[in-house]
Amino acid sequence: MASVDPYSAYGLRKYLRLILPRIIRRGLQAAIDRMQEATFQVHELPPRTLRLSISPAWFDFKKAGRDQMEFFTELAGLRPSDRFLDIACGVGRLAIPLSRFLNHQGSYEGFDINPSSIMFCSNNIAKKYKNFNFTLARIQTTFSDIGSITADKYTFPYADSSFDFVYAGSIFTHLLPGGARNYLNETARVLRPDGRSVATWLVYDENAASMIPGAADNIAKHWPHHRGGYRIKNAQDPEESVIYELSSVRSFYSDAGLTIVEPFRIDASYSPARIPAKRQLGMHLYYVLSIIAVRR
């Protein structure tokens, strides 16, 4: 089964791209975006172009956010009074259901590198919920050029021990080792003692793969470039997709002072259950795991 870019257009949209001139497509999409933003308080669905900045179109925005919050409460002890940090918060997929869960004692902070997403969340969520705040992170990545600081040097803009709960959804899947180590160190710094973190990772185990016929070949098909302890999908754009060997992930957490709560879990948002009908688009989701950890 060939590897396919999960962000590429398919089905009806693929053929519309071939038929309609670009200027007409852009005009139609801009009109739809304006309508969706105007009615956001009713249907709680951000404009499609903003949703596409964080996940493929075939992801169910509302269900993914709901399922992720249920994962937090069921397995990671999220409470309505918790101070919550959302790393790479996107356009509010998690902030929206949390706005109905966190009480007046709780609070939400989110940061992201996408200016349009932060502006939308500030104008449509933070204005309604005063204990919610969104911050633009000026970080230099292959997805953003608004800053000069790279992920391995970035300091989260919050004081030590500020949060009870830190979530990083599908961000370590785009961080190289220096950035991954730094983000875990920063997570530990801003967590209070006994605070919890949940993070999404792409994970493989070389020893296990060697025992399963074809397993190593499947991993190499999705992430063909081996870099020692991790693999990448695209040598020209290393941050496009990064999968880590299991021992590397455990070492990162140990060095950051975060205790992993076993076992690793299937991720609630990025999971095989969300693979679309065109299966090739989502086969990489079989390698996504969610790690719960505690700062001791």
Fold and architecture overview:
The chain has 296 residues and is an alpha/beta fold. The chain has a single domain (52-295), classed as Vaccinia Virus protein VP39 (Rossmann fold). Helices cover 35% and strands 21% of the residues. It has helices at 12-19, 22-38, 40-43, 48-51, 61-75, 95-98, 115-126, 177-190, 206-211, 215-222, 246-256; strands at 83-87, 107-112, 132-136, 163-168, 191-204, 225-226, 230-232, 242-245, 258-266, 288-295. Strands 1, 2, 3, 4, 5, 6, 7, 8, 9 and 10 form a ten-stranded mixed β-sheet that branches. Helix 8 (177-190) links the parallel strand 4 and strand 5 (191-204). Helix 8 runs parallel beside helix 11. The chain is globular. The mean pLDDT is 90.
CATH topology: Rossmann fold
* Strand portion: 15-25%
- SSE pattern: HHHHHEHEHEEHEHHEEEHEE
- At CATH's second level, what is the architecture? 3-Layer(aba) Sandwich
Count of β-strands: 10
Identify low-pLDDT runs.
none
- Number of DSSP helices? 11
Q: Any idea what the radius of gyration is?
A: 19 Å
CATH class: Alpha Beta
Main beta-sheet annotation: 10 strands, mixed
CATH superfamily: Vaccinia Virus protein VP39
Helical percentage:
25-40%
Alpha-beta classification: alpha/beta
Span between N and C termini? 44 Å
Give the overall average pLDDT.
90
Shape: globular
- Total tally of structural domains: 1
